[in-house]
Design a protein that fits this description.
The chain is mostly helical. It has seven helices and no strands. The chain is flat and about 50 Å long. It starts with a helix and ends with a helix.
C-alpha cells in the first residue's frame, strides 16, 4: 500500500507539473501563448490519463502491467497533444493528422477485445505499433501535406518514437502475462481448515 501511494503521488505530481509548465513558459517566451481553452483541454487530458492509470494500478498488482499501462498512456497522450499543438504530418491543421485517430482506435478496440488481460494487451499494443507504421506509409506514399526532406524526416523520426513506445508497452504486458495472476488466493495448509484460511 505504501508503494502504491508513492506511485499515486508521483503520477499526480507529474501531471500537476506538466500543467504548470506552459504557464511558466508563457512568462519567459512569446512562443507559448495559451488561453483558458488550451489549459482546459490539456488539464482534461491529464486527468483522463492519470485516472486511467490509477484505475489500472488499483485493479492490477503486477508492476510490469502497471508500467505497461503507463507507457501506453504516455504514448497516446503525447500523440494526441502533438497532433493538436503541432501536427505530425505537416502542420496541426493538416487533415491527414486525423489518421492517427485510427491508431488510437486500434489500441482501444484491441484492449477491449482483450478484456484488458495482459497477454491480449500485448497483442493489442503490437497491432497499434503496426497501425502507427501503416499511417506513416500512407503519408509518405501519398505525400499528404509535408514538404521536402525535413517533413519526411519528421514523420520517420516520430513514427519510430511512437512505434518504440507501443512495442515497449507490448513487451511489458507480455512479461506481466508470464507472471500470471497478480493476486493469487491464499491456499490453506492441510492442517488448517478452510474456514480459518478465510
Amino acid at each position: 500500500m505504501r508503494h502504491r501511494s508513492r506511485w499515486r503521488t508521483f503520477v499526480w505530481g507529474a501531471a500537476a507539473l506538466l500543467l504548470l509548465l506552459p504557464l511558466f513558459a508563457m512568462q519567459v517566451t512569446d512562443q507559448v501563448d495559451w488561453d483558458v481553452a488550451d489549459f482546459a483541454i490539456f488539464g482534461a487530458m491529464l486527468v483522463g490519463a492519470g485516472g486511467t492509470y490509477e484505475f489500472a494500478a488499483r485493479k492490477i498488482g503486477d508492476p510490469a502491467y502497471r508500467v505497461a499501462v503507463g507507457v501506453a498512456l504516455a504514448a497516446a497522450f503525447v500523440l494526441v497533444w502533438m497532433n493538436l499543438a503541432l501536427g505530425i504530418i505537416g502542420a496541426e491543421d493538416n487533415p491527414a493528422n486525423m489518421l492517427y485517430g485510427g491508431v488510437l482506435a486500434v489500441g482501444i478496440i484491441g484492449s477491449i477485445i482483450a478484456r484488458f488481460q495482459a497477454r491480449g494487451m500485448a497483442r493489442a499494443m503490437v497491432t497499434t505499433a503496426l497501425a502507427q507504421v501503416f499511417v506513416a506509409m500512407i503519408a509518405v506514399t501519398a505525400g499528404l501535406g509535408f514538404a521536402g526532406p525535413d517533413g519526411l524526416g519528421q514523420i520517420l523520426i516520430l513514427t519510430s518514437f511512437f512505434t518504440a513506445l507501443w512495442l515497449v508497452s507490448a513487451w511489458l504486458f507480455r512479461r506481466a502475462a508470464r507472471v500470471g495472476r497478480p493476486f493469487p488466493r491464499r491456499s490453506h495448509t492441510p492442517t488448517e481448515s478452510p474456514e480459518r484460511a478465510r
